[in-house]
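Summary of Year 1 activities. Much of the first year was spent building the evaluation harness for sequence design. The harness presents a backbone, in tokenized form, and records the residue chosen at every position. We chose the following record to illustrate the format because it has been used consistently in internal testing since the harness was completed.
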């Protein structure tokens, strides 16, 4: 496994996000504080609408902070007074695909570095691209177009493309939500191999609790809206990991702890929704 990155250290201090404070007033995140250490693989879980994606978007620079502060590597990057802009130091992979359909796999992967000029020449770019595509199990598909490969392969291409720009942190917003269980198991293996190779800091949003335990080193559980950090669980399972760990007693113990924490918040979210419908 590669040495963990020394970059991508995220500290959120008392972060609050209120949408339309002078109108509908949706309180999405409330007084939320947490830390993602450099090189950590952090998964964030919680009921729908708890502010997971909102938190990711604030770190990515797609959304503003109402109150509180967000730091990266000791530098203030977002607050009520400081609007963060998206940048190549924080690459995002979304639920829905964002590949250029008119470019081949390797052209998609090389596009960002070419535009940024982060490599000395095209040969160096392609060498790096082919190394990551090989780890992602995609070396045979570099000349294919996105529409001719499976959705699981497309997600892997997007992750490789994000890593090519050398980000400090990789932000993954439920990228595998629409995939079937077998495809997920394949893509999980390749994602872990890429993580082991690069040591990048990762923030991973998911509803899949087994996915969170299998992939992450740390799992954050968010409360129902307005979201704040309810619990942090350290996943003490050695790396590299393989599918066999999911039957271990340690894995099942983490799963039960996570299910208990999330279930209580899901019940609260359901009851609140029932009350709102009754109004």
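For this record, the design step produced the sequence shown next.
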């Amino acid at each position: 496994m590669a040495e963990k990155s020394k970059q991508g250290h995220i500290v959120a201090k008392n972060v609050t996000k209120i949408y339309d404070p002078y109108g509908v007033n949706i309180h999405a995140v409330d007084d939320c504080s947490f830390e993602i250490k450099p090189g950590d693989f952090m998964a964030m879980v919680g009921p729908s609408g708890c502010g997971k994606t909102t938190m990711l978007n604030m770190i990515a620079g797609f959304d503003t902070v109402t109150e509180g502060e967000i730091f990266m590597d000791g530098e203030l990057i977002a607050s009520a007074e400081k609007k963060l802009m998206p940048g190549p130091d924080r690459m995002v992979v979304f639920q829905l695909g964002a590949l250029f359909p008119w470019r081949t796999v390797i052209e998609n992967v090389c596009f960002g570095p070419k535009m940024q000029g982060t490599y000395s020449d095209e040969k160096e770019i392609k060498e790096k691209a082919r190394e990551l595509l090989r780890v992602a199990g995609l070396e045979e598909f570099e000349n294919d177009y996105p529409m001719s490969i499976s959705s699981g392969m497309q997600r892997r291409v997007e992750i490789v493309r994000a890593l090519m720009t050398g980000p400090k942190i990789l932000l993954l917003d439920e990228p595998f939500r629409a995939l079937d269980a077998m495809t997920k198991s394949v893509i999980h293996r390749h994602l872990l191999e890429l993580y082991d190779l690069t040591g990048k800091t990762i923030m991973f949003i998911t509803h899949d609790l087994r996915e969170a335990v299998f992939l992450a080193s740390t799992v954050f559980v968010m409360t129902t809206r307005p979201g704040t950090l309810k619990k942090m669980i350290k996943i003490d399972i050695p790396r590299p990991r393989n599918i066999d760990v999911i039957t271990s007693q340690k894995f099942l113990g983490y799963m039960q702890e996570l299910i208990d924490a999330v279930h209580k918040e899901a019940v609260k979210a359901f009851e609140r929704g029932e009350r709102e419908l009754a109004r």
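The two ends are 54 Å apart (CA to CA). Quantitative recovery figures across the full test set are reported in Table 2.
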